[in-house]
Every structure is written in structure tokens, then in C-alpha cells.
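Working notes for the structural subgroup meeting. M.R. asked for a predicted model of this chain before we commit to crystallization trials. I am recording the input and output together here so anyone reviewing the notebook later can reproduce the run.

Input as submitted:
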Amino acid sequence: MSSQRAPTADLGDVTSARSRHQGRRSAVTLTDGLAVVGTADGDLRAFDVSTDAGPPRPRWQYDTDGEPSVVAAVPFDGGVVVGERSARGEIRCHDADGDLRWRYETRTDLGEAQQDTRFLLPFVASLATDGDRLYAAARRYERRTADDGSDQRHFESVIYAFGADGTVDWTYRTDGSPISLSARDGRLAVAYNRCPGDHQHGLVVLDADEGDPRWMWDPGTDGQRRVGDVTLLETGAVVTSHGDYCGYRLDSGGRERWCVPLATPTDIDGDTVYAYPNHVHATAEGAVFVTGNTYPEEGRETDARHPHEHTAIGVSPDGDRRWDAPVGGFASGLGTDGSLLAVPGAQNFRDRDADDHALRLFDIADGPIDTLDTDGVVTAAAVENGTAVAVEEPVVYHDEGYERGAYRLHRAGMESETAQSRR
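Returned structure, recorded in C-alpha cell form:
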């Protein structure tokens, strides 16, 4: 696997990330050689990345009002759709030149934020499309006092199906916390990472035309944690379980075909630690799971490290482990295109090793392809037709005190024979 530096384009100013994760505040997607970046101030910046020579070339910019951050972006109907974390929780559709086609404020359904605090704002957690419709998962989180005086989590969430003109075809409401969507072949899969209320299913597969549930699945574990991510296959789905830290292949209807332990509780020098499997990308060739930070079963701090934290794990279609490789830090999402995936490595808040800051590229069957080194942390990525793009954000670690990196877009071509053959 090679390592490289790539041409970059400036994205303006942004407050530096810190040692602890502050949540998503940037997004990027690729469509027909155009990289569209949703920024931490809510603006969109589009760059031509269709050629291999030189840095990404600015094409257009769309400025918005308020104090949003763009946290999700997907191509749709010849343009792009973006989703915000903001007081309005807006979903916006733009054409290929950046002009606004339509917009929808999810606070209409989710309600106003309990406080003007980032993690309490309406949040468009995921966007997906099957070509005909745009699907969005939006949620709002708040704290409530129960009858017994205890402090409880509460979510309001809505799954939307939009037509190309912005018409809402249907909605699906729960009090669970949706985190990921996958759409194909008349189905929409919704992964719920927390279920503190009446909704108690980590995975719901909906009929894409009507929004009615087809089948549901849950890891069946104690606590609120359920499913971290989902990918639909031609039949069934592959999911990451936050309940037992495993990966599952499900047949249609939710029957479990196989289960792979990923970062299950492990004793390290007397400290039992685990890591959540946060992401999955799957095709007929297999699946890749990506795990996150180490956590102890008791408390929050630990000197131990789970042996499979911050790891990409390749699995065959039959559930056999084929390869694994480090991803350097917490990944806020994946960029995917067929058998290729790009993993943005942000902070490893326990070790804070800046040498690990990078975008890492993988093939589902063969594993690591390439690494794009960065000075700051990589927080968003996309890949299309052998071109990868990544958003770098500056970071200041509390035990160093100086800024690394900048707010910028990277573009890299995949030069390996594997990457070429997978296009």
C-alpha cells in the first residue's frame, strides 16, 4: 500500500477541532467529476476534480444564512442534496450549478431545539437515494425528567421520502435515533443507534413506495444501543450491532445468516474494553466493517486499547474474516463506490498521534489500496470512478496546544492495479 500527498483547495476558516470529538460539521460528495463540499458554516463549495493534474478548481459557491453546519450530502437528480445540523434542520436540493431547487425544514416535524446547543439541534443524520426518490433521516435529541426524577434521553425522529420536486411522498416517525440509511430495489433500510423509548427495533426495512415496514431486526441486547450502520444487499442486509459489537448478515425477513465478532469485550491487563463497530459497506463480494474508539466497561477513561479499535475488517460473503487494517482514528462516515471505500481517519482522542491523520482507501475483497496523508484530521470523504476526495479540518490537541492542518479539500487518484480493475 502506497502513501501520498494530494493537491488541495482552501475551504476558508473554521474553528479547530479539539481532542474530543465535536460531531460532524462537514460533508462532501462527488457527482460527474464535481466535488461538492458542505462546510461548517452551512455554505456549499463546488470544485472540478475531473482531471488528475493540479488542485481542485473552484466552480461555484452557495452561501446560506443562520448558523448551520452541513453534515450530509448525496448526488440526486442531476444535482446534490445536503442536510444540516441547525436550528431549522434543513434539507436542501441544488442543481449542478448550485442554484437552489427546493428546501425543507425538518423542525416543522421534529420541534424546536430544547436549547441552542449543538447536540440538541435538529440533525439530518443520513441521506440516501435509489435514483427515483431522496430519503432523509432527521432527529432531534433532548433531555427529560422522568416521574421518578431521573434524567432520560428522548428523541423525535422522522424518515422522509422526497420526490424530485421536493414533494414529501411519505414519512415514518419513531422515538428512536436514526443514524444510517440504505436504499435499493424498492426497499429503504433504517438503522437506529439508540432506542430509549417505545421504538425498540435497531433495524427497520421499509417499503420505498409507501413507507410501511416490511420487516424489523434487533440485536436483542440490554440497553439503548442497537445498530450503527446498514447496507442493503440484493436479498437481506449487513448491519453493525452496537448491542454486542458484532457484524451480522441478515436474510430477507431478518433471519441471521452469520455473525462476526468485531470488537467484543476483551480483558487487557485487568481492564475489560470494547469498541463500537460504527460503519459497514457491503456488496456481493463481501463486507467491510469499521470500528471506533476503545471504551472500558467501567467508567470512561482507560489506559487499555482494544486490539481491534480503529480497524477496517474485511469479511467474505460467507462471513469469513479475510483481512484487517488500521484506519488511524475515529471515522465519521465512509465514502463508497462499488467495491471501493474511503475511510476518513479523524481524532484518536486517547492517543492523539498526528502521524495517523490520513484518508485510507480499501477494496472490499483485497483490503488496503492507498493512504492519503494529512496534517489535520480527515472528517469526510467520497469516492467515484477512481477519484477520492476528503475534507481535512485543523486540530489542536489539548496536550500539544498548537494547530495542525487546515480546512481544505484533498483530491487523489487511485493508481494501483486493484483500484483500476475495480472501477
